[in-house]
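We now fix the convention by which a protein and its fold are recorded. Here is one such record, which you should read through line by line:

>
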Amino acid sequence: MLDLAHNAGDSIGEYVYSASASRYVAPPYEKLLINTLNMLNYLETADLSGARVEARRLSVIHRYIKDDLKETQNSILGLGSYLAGFVYEKSGESDEALRYYDEALAVSNYQSLAEPLRALTQRASYKSPRIDKAVASAPTRELPRNEDDGEVLCVVGYGRVPHKIPKRIPIGLALTLVSGDIHPNNAAAANRLAAKGLVTWINYPTLAPDQGSYAIPTCSVDGKAIPMEQAVNVSSEVLAEWRKIEGKVILSAITRLIARFTVGEGIQAVGGRDSPLAFLASLGAQATLTALDTPDTRSWETLPARVAIGRIRVPAGKHAVVADARGVSRSQPVQVSAGGWAIVSLQALR
């Protein structure tokens, strides 16, 4: 929440001194994933109370992103709402569970929700066309549902999201990239600087490729494979968010370049245009500011590129769950009580 207190000093530092001088502003997908992954942590420890708190926090952040940032949809909500629905389903709050599942279905058509939704709609009043459609897609059961059976949910994150890396490009190319957004005065100043053959490169962050997003995750219970489906493509959210701000990032780098040149010109004007000392002082000031201008490569790098999810009903008792992705495997014994549940997750960040 610290970035909500962003002030003028941060903006001045970003445009004059260095992009990394301002407070870190977490993009919407990172804000949503904080509560989503915390919810998963609580579920792994069978702490439904803690998981409900994270589900409510997720709703608050969602409201902030929707009302204040004017972002109507974010695919991270698919996974977050799926887990929140599971939390309230296992807490015995069927209507609240259906509300969250409805939000999840608005993002993606989760096949694994069809059977749980059919059971939930029989004891809840919440109605939704999306839920009705999902229930209709559930296969016809040949045997009655055994209420003593438990359930195992498997969540596998794999790969790594694109992370920020420094990039160096000529000022001419930078001006071309932001030609439609840069102020004419700044463009003219940058062109004058480039024409003088001085410091004509700018440094700014860009995104490296993601890793392992096309792997095939698997999960099995007692040797029986669980159908896994993609819950969220985190890399696509990272790329979409970066496209929104890339122009602003390049603009701020150009502005800092102009500011450094202006400082140098001011020093030389005070010391005398023909003074060798003033010329050296001007170059020294510009070189110092250039060295201190480090691209802002801060981001949440330890996020999976994608997350897959699967669930299966199992008889009460002890079961062996094995999750695997990208050469990383986790074997976890679980004890499922009658009508109970267990969650096993794997984060293969490679």
